[in-house]
Amino acid sequence: METALRAAINKLEELGARVEWEVSLPHTPYALAAYYIIAPSEAMANLARYDGVKYGFSYTDTDSMWEALEKTRQFGFGDEVKRRIMLGTYALSAGYYDAWYLKAQKVRTLIRQEFD
Fold first, then answer.
1. Comparing C-alpha atoms, which of 39, 34, 72 is closest to residue 54?
2. Nearest CA to 58 among 46, 44, 73?
3. Which residues form a coiled coil (predicted)?
4. Do residues 55 and 42 touch, judged by C-beta distance below 8 A?
5. What 3-state class would DSSP assign to 101?
6. Residues contacting 49, CB < 8 A, separation 6+
7. What is the distance, to the nearest Å, from the Cα of residue 53 to the centroid of all Cα atoms in its chain?
């Protein structure tokens, strides 16, 4: 991509254009870390309604409602989804909300502003 961009700039300059550009994206190295906090948190919040009562898979071969809820969550989501739900729950918990989620939101805002 960089090679193609530089070639295009060189061509424009050969044709008489004056190209001035400077790109500074100092916060993009933190994008992946912010993603791994924000995405699981949002996924956890969105998947909370899939309890088998009103939405989603329902495990019905049980003796009690509580067992049905437990089995629905146990068998209704794959391992990676469960990991992301747990990470999202952790990031949004009272003791870590400010330390993790709010900081990730601030990083996301800084990254978005860099592209504006």
1. 72
2. 73
3. none
4. no
5. helix
6. 55, 56
7. 27
Helices (H), 1-116: 2-14, 31-47, 65-76, 79-92, 103-115
> Which residue has 């993790």 as its token pair?
100
Q: Are 111 and 28 in contact (CB under 8 A)?
A: yes
Q: Which of 72, 12, 19 is nearest to 47 (CA)?
A: 72
**80 by DSSP, 3-state: which?**
helix
Token digits for 86? 């747990």
Q: How many CB atoms lie within 10 A of CB 25?
A: 11
| Sequence ranges of the domains in the chain | 26-115
What pLDDT does 48 receive?
79
Q: What is the mean pLDDT of each run of 10 residues along the chain (116 residues)?
A: 90 93 89 96 87 74 82 83 92 92 97 92
What six digits make up the tokens of 95?
A: 């003791």
Give residue 5's Cα distance to chain centre.
Answer: 29
